[in-house]
Amino acid sequence: MDKITRIIELKKAGNSIKKISKTLGVSKNTVRKYLRRNDREDIDVESDNKDNLSKLLLGQNNQEERARENRLNELLPYLVKELKRVGVTRYLLWQEYKITDPDGYSYSRFCARIKSHKGAQDVTLRLEHKNGYALTIRNYTMLTNQLERYITAKY
């Protein structure tokens, strides 16, 4: 937060973006980003409290972001279930999502969230062992019948 206040103070003092970036050791794009946000929000560094500066730092209200995330989290089980149906695509689901939540995530973020939710659900177990060391039996009754026939035929 100190760097943000310094960026704003140096700009008000009349320094160029290039000089600010060299002085503070941040990129010119970072300086531009915070100056644009400051112009939009019109935050006074001297009189405003740290909440307004954190709002400037984050770019938007943290509560709004959490609310948007919670709305999508509630929909994720339904979306994953719908994706299993024939003819239902992620793009189609995203269009429906944007109708219900116009301030919702972009398509790429939406797909990434679905992918991470599906990955969290699909847990598999892989048994690793040396060859011939362990045996996994799927159908025990079939195996015992085959062993009985083999043993009686041999002896």
The span between the termini is: 85 Å
Number of strands: 0
Please indicate the percent range of residues in DSSP E strands (runs of 2 or more).
Answer: under 5%
Q: Which regions are unreliable across 5 or more consecutive residues at pLDDT < 50?
A: none
- Structural class, from secondary structure content? mainly alpha
Q: What radius of gyration results from the CA coordinates?
A: 30 Å
How many helices does DSSP assign? 8
The whole-number mean of residue pLDDT values reads: 78
Order of helices and strands: HHHHHHHH
Instruction: Give the fraction of residues assigned to helices.
Output: 55-70%
* Shape designation: elongated
* Sheet with most strands: none
Topology:
Blueprint: H1 2-12, H2 17-24, H3 28-41, H4 50-58, H5 62-83, H6 90-100, H7 107-121, H8 140-154
Helix pairs in contact: 1-2, 1-3, 2-3, 5-7
Descriptive report:
This protein is mostly helical and 155 residues long. It is built from eight helices and no strands. The protein is elongated, with a radius of gyration of 30 Å. The termini are far apart.
Any descriptors?
mainly alpha; 8 helices; 155 residues; elongated
How would you concisely characterize the structure shown here?
The protein is an all-alpha fold and 155 residues long. Helix content is 68%, strand content 0%.
